[in-house]
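Dear Dr. L.,

I hope this message finds you well. Following up on our conversation about the binding site, I have prepared a predicted three-dimensional model of the protein together with iron/sulfur cluster. For your records, I am including the exact sequence and ligand specification that went into the calculation, followed by the structure tokens. Please feel free to forward this to your student if that is useful.
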Amino acid sequence: MKTYPTTETADVVIIGSGAGGAPIAARMAQAGKRVIVLEAGPRFNPENYTADEAGARELYWLNERLSGGANPQAFGGNNSGTGVGGSLLHYGAFMPRPDPRDMQLHTETGMSVDWPFQYDELLPYLEEVEAFIGVSGPKHYPWDPSRSYAFAPPPANSAALKMRESCDALGIRHADGPTALITQAVEQPHFGKREACSNCGACHQGCRNGSKSSADNTWLPLAVAHGAEIRAESVVHTIETDQRGQITGVVYHHKGQDIRQKCDQLVLSAGAVETARLLLHNGLANSSGQVGENYMTHISTQVWGVFDEDLRPNRGYPSLTITEDMMRPKDADFAGGYLIQSLGMMPVTWGSLVARGTTRRGPDLARTLAQYNRSAGLGIHGDCIPHPDNKVVLSHEKDALGIPKPLITHSYGPNELAMHAHASKLLTSLWQAVGAKDIRILDRAAHMIGTARMGTKADSAVVTPFGQSFDIPNLWISDHSTFPSATAANPALTIMALSLRTADAMLRQ
Ligand SMILES: Cc1cc2nc3c(=O)[nH]c(=O)nc-3n(C[C@H](O)[C@H](O)[C@H](O)COP(=O)(O)OP(=O)(O)OC[C@H]3O[C@@H](n4cnc5c(N)ncnc54)[C@H](O)[C@@H]3O)c2cc1C
Ligand code: SF4
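The resulting structure of the complex is given below.
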């Protein structure tokens, strides 16, 4: 890897090396820019990944975040990662495309906000991401016959098979979901051999084979091959500006030392909570008053049932079967819709979820946990509408570097509550249709979205539709924070597509 002296001004500094930061790093480096990526987490060697959940904690962002609101979100490995590659190191790799209608929900329903451009503009970037990283999927995708996937799906695990049966029983269409993994070995340019998925089921603990398509085996090797430098264990805390308010560089903490790195352009890709926190802490790019505002999640209601036979939910790729039939349910009393996915899960993750999501305690909890091997889950990802009460602010508590910890307030509004109720009823019926017993509904929110939204007007958005700050032209944001509304789809594909789109806008200027 090429290295740059810290005395040299980089063309582009990118904070964060995940779904938002890695594609833009590759694109800018390919265009000949001197790119430096500053990543708070360490560099991992995939050979050391272990399917043991306790051992995988090193991949999680575990710095304390304070949580409030009527539906306070749990933070940790369930929604954020760290390390060279960001949260993609331990994400689940479920990779549906966003529904075009979700990007224009305000026009459709009068609720939420529209995205500042149409799906058609995003589509070429979605296709480019899928082709470059490697995505598996069915030959025929029932909700979008124009689509094709380069790799065949992995084998279905027992939860996926059960969901197929239950959908058939209720007349709901289903398919193998798009998954960001490869089922045939490939030679990935600048990375090397990526093995075919072995269906081991340990995606959330890091993929040892390079089969899961993440930033560390795709975009980042491409970036490095074109001269980008990735500095791991480098926590940015200060963003410096000149008298005109332009960014001049950043200061980051690395192994006990503060280091200054100057740059011409700065890209913030630290994820929706840390990006907002950095901007608020440095008092930047907030003439709209929207930094930290409009925090969203995905409604991720899960329904688990117990079956008569052993299902072994730890085995096989965790979430394969999908239905998009509920993207606009006919009997909906809410705007938008949700995807349904089958769920397998590792035991400790499952146990924590059950303990957190139910009131079962003592012997009742022990009895439930003992049913692990016969359990299967269904889960949704539902669209979420921005709400003025949901936000990230700086708290009065400070972290080890003396920076205020973030306080995140999260409450479901009437639309989210109605969607949760609809999904709870339907998912329960699906499991009842195939004889599940001891059915449990877990109220759960996933992902961290919003806080620096894009839009067309400087008084209501933080960045332009291309991710450029309205206030500071040499500041760009490329991560989950720029989404104006959540959209129902799992987000990584859209974040990566937007990252390439932002890179192209930067290169045009
Ligand atoms: C357990 C889990 C399962 C998931 N499953 C799926 C799935 O199946 N499909 C899907 O589409 N999405 C999934 N997601 C969500 C998806 O992974 C994230 O939405 C996406 O990766 C977020 O990208 P990002 O660029 O916004 O942030 P991240 O990928 O989180 O990147 C932010 C990076 O910035 C670094 N950073 C933060 N602050 C600083 C700082 N001050 N200085 C330097 N570096 C900093 C962090 O260490 C991190 O590496 C999952 C997420 C998790 C946690
Ligand atoms: S199931 Fe496949 S993609 Fe997931 S960790 Fe195992 S080999 Fe990697």
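In brief: The chain has a mean pLDDT of 96.

With kind regards,
A. P.
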